[in-house]
Amino acid sequence: MTRDPRYDVLFEPVRIGPLTARNRFYQVPHCSGMGRAWPQALAAMRAMKAAGGWAVVNTEYCSIHPSSDDTPYPYASLWDAGDVRANARMTEAVHDQGALAGVELWHGGNYVGNLASREPPIDIMSLPSRTDPVQSRVLYKDDIRALRRWHSDAAKRAVEAGFDLVYVYATHAYLLDHFLSPVSNQRTDEYGGSLENRVRILRELLIETREAIGPDRALAVRFTAANLGGKGAPTEELREMLSILGPLADIWDLVVDDYTLEMGSSRFVEEGAQESYLAGLRQLLGKPVVGVGRFTSPDTMVGMVKRGVLDFIGAARPSIADPFLPRKIEEGRLEEIRECIGCNICYASNSRGNPIRCTQNPTMGEEWRSGWHPEQIEPAGSKDSILVVGAGPAGLEAAVALARRGYAVTLAEASDTLGGRVTRESRLPGLAAWGRVRDHRLELMKGLPNLQVYPASRMSAADVLGFGAPVVALATGAAWRRDGIGRLHRAPQPGFDSAAVLTPDDLMSPEVPDLPPGPVVIYDDDRYYMAAVLAEKLALGGRAVTLVTTGGTAAAWAYFTEELDRTNARLLSLGVTLRTSSAVVSFDGAGAEVSCLFSDRREVLAAVGLVTVTARSPEDLLYRQLIQNPAALRDSGIRLLQRVGDCLAPALIAHAVHAGHRFARELDASKPWDAARRELAAP
Ligand code: ADP
Ligand code: SF4
């Protein structure tokens, strides 16, 4: 296949100062949960993007000095020779695939707690860190001189490590941002006050970084294009700063100062949502501009270039979901693109401090540890046919990956629609993009004649035994509990067996059970998106809703996916009443008894219905029936019977996809899966 000439513009080489990028696809700096702790895994992950056609591949935020230590988050660092060696693994691997490698030099200011280095954080004021009871010390002039020296030294180490682009990172509420802002910069010396004074440090760093990296490397800046949060410099001032500083850098990486928009989840933010903030800046700067927008549509990308908004299509998430996105566009294989669903599970890896994972791309983060390639898979290790029962994310992924290996695969699904939970959930408010998990796999199936799919085929134990496949994967999923058992309650709660107690499965089913008119209580002990999304659905349907959660806020875990603020804002705007750090302990059809987790003070809230969002039970009846009779199992010729995904252990969609993929990879594999494979940071 060849590419559509409409997309030619995306494959034009573009100059970045002394360098030439081979096309317009640019992986902006993004967290990986690997950083300094997993240098080999990181190198393999970034190199995969280079192999997939990205012209520029950057690190995550890379600390210049121990006074910028974001422990326990796994940031990158360039503090010493050991860091140079660790980062060189990435630059070499990226260069081997023909891409340019960039590093985002970073100082966190008061944002960080320096929990490992135990240096006092530094900033223009003495302010508390983001999460810890630690305050920064104030930077005086000799400290600013030291800061400039650290930055230059780190830039020299970046060159030693082989980076082609070196960033000065001047946004996202880190140290340099504080200098720029008239709100946070209250200094009375030459680094505070007038706009010229506030940009002084950035100007100095740009000039000195340029000196440090020499004429053969490019200088990049990450900078705020618009003030949305009110804390930074006003947007008009930012424009003025850009016109002053523009000539000093080779490329400008522009963001808005609101993470919940810049990397907003698809529940709240559309593709290309930053365009209005970036318009006109490229002309103002006279330098190449890169910006992000969860771009997965080549038409949208072309529009961005043709309208003169961007020179480079910046991507974090689309490059995570599909490292081969540029190649697929280039080769006219658009239908194979694994589109990001905007769930932000990748970002949660950084928030939780674990190596990156992705809902759509099960190979993300497994490039080094497991040797998984997103586009290649080992051929079948036997001639056995395979039965996969259940076409949720686990079953779909297992079936497709096994068929790609060449096995003869049958996929049997009880319902008449495929997709399991992603199909059900994609009908809820804001979750439509989650259907992409199903759609991508259905698309791949079209090219796999050795995969037979049977919807509306509920398999009994006798069906499985009589089917004749030596390998059987049970991907039969999980069902939401009705009895209140979850993190908090270990036994069913009184009255939860009432017909007016509904689960998320009830509310997602095509025929939602009827409740009389009146208020509804949602009891959330899951603490992620489900309870909030159901509250939204019920409130939009005109119900008075109280969300009772054992968490400290609604959707507490959504903090890790950067969805907390917008989730709570939306619930409040819909008039949903929130009751945090509380549990529902009984229900009688007219009221839900709520207990405060700290005081056990109780109160009955009027409720004609109770929705329980607590935990899920594996749907493993079929498995239990099959193992009940080992002789029948043996006689059937089944050599491997395995539960996969939620049917084994309910978790995120990302876990189910990974589990399905892992099952497919492990079957008759030449190399076993090795969960114990770790690495130590470079000495
Ligand atoms: P996972 O997230 O692990 O993929 P899901 O709950 O999304 O799990 O999907 C499980 C799928 O399995 C559902 O579509 C369900 O209809 C199907 N299923 C459950 N039991 C059977 C069965 N006995 N035969 C065929 N399909 C089944
Ligand atoms: Fe996109 Fe979700 Fe994958 Fe992140 S985890 S890249 S948001 S699909």
From TrEMBL:
Residues 10-334 form the NADH:flavin oxidoreductase/NADH oxidase N-terminal domain. Pfam families: NAD_binding_8 (PF13450), Oxidored_FMN (PF00724). The keyword Flavoprotein applies. It comes from the Bacteria. Keywords: Flavoprotein, FMN, Iron, Iron-sulfur, Metal-binding, Oxidoreductase. Its EC number is 1.5.8.1, 1.5.8.2. InterPro entries: Aldolase_TIM, FAD/NAD-bd_sf, NADH:flavin_oxidoreductase, OxRdtase_FMN_N. One of its GO terms (molecular function) is dimethylamine dehydrogenase activity. Its cofactor is [4Fe-4S] cluster; FMN. In the N-terminal section; belongs to the NADH:flavin oxidoreductase/NADH oxidase family. This is Dimethylamine/trimethylamine dehydrogenase. It comes from Limibacillus halophilus. The lineage of its organism: Bacteria, Pseudomonadati, Pseudomonadota, Alphaproteobacteria, Rhodospirillales.
